Amino acid sequence: MKIEIPRECERLGAVQIYGLQKVYELDSGGNSGRADTSHNDVIRSIPSEALYERQKDMAIVVPVKNERLKLIEGVLVGIPHPCQIIVVSNSPRGPVDRFHIEKEAITNFCKFTNKKVLVVHQKDAAIAKAIEMAGYGELLGEDGLVRSGKAEGMIMGTLLARWLNNKYIGFVDSDNYFPGAVHEYVQEYAAGFEMFDTKSTFVRISWNSKPKVMENSLFFAKWGRSSVHSNKTLNLLLSHFSGYETEVVKTGNAGEHALTVDLALNLEYASGYAVETHHYVNIIESWGGILPPNEEIVHRDKVTICQIESRNPHLHESKGDEHVEDMIDASLSVIYNSPLCPELLKREIAEDRALRMRLEKPEGIAPVRVYSNLSNLKLDTFLEHCEAAFSSESESLSLV
Ligand code: GDP
Ligand code: CO
Q: What is the number of domains present in the chain?
């Protein structure tokens, strides 16, 4: 892959946020033959072998809820072979057992491809037990099972990626129409880890475009409404601390992202639409050097956030736009309610929101549920119980 070296970098304590990087060639050749492995001041050429080496240590988590089988299959087709795939499904088990149908389709797919896939249902009782024994009961609902939601599925996927000893973890939604786009995201995750080879690297993708039908023709929109708001507000937060206006953040709610498992196990997770924005906020809270140091949070030399602009258009299942206000509210809520957020910015967020929602006067944003730092989960206990869960041959948990 041929990829631009980032031009700017904002630093805050141990946190480094690099500017958006453009991809110039999806495949720039391999190590052998006439491949171009040139490096220069503006472009880095990463041989395909180097990407595959990273992917051997990478788990890709695919969250699923009631998606069409053809879509799920397309997503699996796009994930490079060396990756360990983890499908976390929260599809209903009755009256029609959707999960069973998904598992059958995935098993069949694996017969053809010999891919490594772990399929788990979000409501698997044995995994819930392992989480409870490890002292992280906050993730469980009243029924003692993992709560519903994509963020909760992501936490479950992260823990399973650790159980399978992966070094990196990436996420791709299961409702993506283009296998080629999925393939590109995973190549870019690997490129990010190759360029920033640290213990705490976070790679986030910004889509180049999102096709929409407007007046009978295709229009390639660049920014969704909700990402405009979260990027702008995160940038204002950074500007407040650095004293310099910045636009470095372009991936405030990037659903497509990957990070080292080590970092993933030391973060908080907000529920619902806020999860991605909260990762930024929480990283700055923990390592930005602004809040007083918290002894429970592992010190890090640096935490690197790298942002890559993908080339494929992003097209996913259209589920209507009525949630867009809720999405904006959720991601602004985690900034608004962070101990980092200065009064001035709080006022600005509340005033903007009052205009947007035509409220009579500005009011605060209610906090969303935030799961505490995953380091509060006793990992050894979890891994032990997880081992037992797998040997019990539960129907909602299998390696195919
Ligand atoms: P959007 O793309 O942000 O509008 O959200 P989607 O509704 O497309 O959800 C993103 C991804 O998460 C899709 O792949 C869904 O199938 C999946 N998903 C949604 N809810 C859940 C859930 O409760 N559990 C799991 N495991 N996945 C979910
Ligand atoms: Co979607």
A: 1
Ion ligand 2 neighbours, Cβ < 5 Å: 175, 316
137-189 tens-digit pLDDT? 999 999 999 999 999 999 999 999 999 999 999 999 999 999 999 999 999 99
Positions in the chain short of pLDDT 70: 32-39, 320-321
CA angle 277, 280, 282 (to 5 degrees): 105
Question: Which ligand 1 atom minimizes the distance to the CA of 176?
Answer: 14
3-state secondary structure of 331: helix
Residue numbers of the domain that contains 26: 2-399
Position 169 scores a pLDDT of 98
Residue length of the chain: 400
Residue 322 CB contacts under 8 Å (≥ 6 apart), including other chains: none
* C-beta 149 within 6 A of ligand 1: yes
Write the DSSP string, 18-64: EEEEEEEES----SSTT----B-SSEEE--HHHHHHHHTTEEEEEEE
What pLDDT does residue 205 have?
Answer: 97
Q: What CATH number is attached to the domain comprising 181? A: 3.90.550.10
**Residue whose CA is at the smallest distance from ligand 1 atom 11:** 173
